[in-house]
Amino acid sequence: MEANWQREGMTNPMSRPEIVRYAAFTHDPAGGNPAGVVLDASGLDAEAMLAGAAEVGYSETAFVTDSAEGSRRFRVRYFSPLTEVAFCGHATVALAVALAERFGPGEIVLDTPAGEVPVVTRIDDNGAVSATLTSVPTRSRPALAAELEAALKALNWVTGDLDPALPPHVAFGGNDHLILAAGSRERLADLEYDFNSLAEVMRRHDWTTIDLVWRESPDHFHARNPFPVGGVVEDPATGAAAAAFGGYLRTLGLVPRGAKITIRQGEDMGRPSDLRIDVDPQDTRTRVTGQAVRIG
């Protein structure tokens, strides 16, 4: 694996791409979701990027594979330690903040395997950098009975654990996520699932994460995101799932126009994360906002 990363997948084997590390959706390097960022991966093939992501060991690493000189448009690919994914929200925020620190804040456009994702970065008076991404168009549909049964079994949940006011859905915000709403904060906190069984269910249905949520109020949710298909037990912040969740709420008619909704994630892992989503009932895209900070 190291040989692929350092030699076989590189057009210039003498130069090793720099990997920078950021914690996304937090202002604290010890919180949020860590992501790797490679700002120049033009010399890497897919095998080398996968090996690099495995070496980094985070749930996702973003690789900039192409950019036009003088342009603020970048082509990006995302890899977990086990596979490539079409879109990753927290790595997008990390990448955008890394670019803002080097080239200044403003608007950039990312060409991802899921589609075009505009991002706006800002620096506040204290020097903190935040990014707002606009997702690809979202959609959401009720989960099928067989899908729900298999997921609940692997999670060691039962239907009585769910909030009947928030029905199970499969929602898309760049990739698909099964959304299950817990009936209590205690149910959300008690997460012990069958890693291999849940990974098999997710691969069968092509789900990137399971988005487990609990509604504290109409505009404040708590979330947890198992990610066994990426080789990770749980994500402490999942921007792609947050984008899909915005589409879910819009589909169910649970947001007023221009609603700003906060999602607290990672708390049960000791890596608290804060995500904000802006949902417009007339717009299928979700805007996801968060800070990111350099690790080390």
Automatic annotation (TrEMBL):
Keywords: Isomerase. It holds the Pfam family PhzC-PhzF. Gene3D superfamilies: Diaminopimelate Epimerase, Chain A, domain 1. GO terms for molecular function: isomerase activity. Belongs to the PhzF family. PANTHER family: BIOSYNTHESIS PROTEIN, PUTATIVE-RELATED, PHENAZINE BIOSYNTHESIS PROTEIN. This is PhzF family phenazine biosynthesis isomerase.
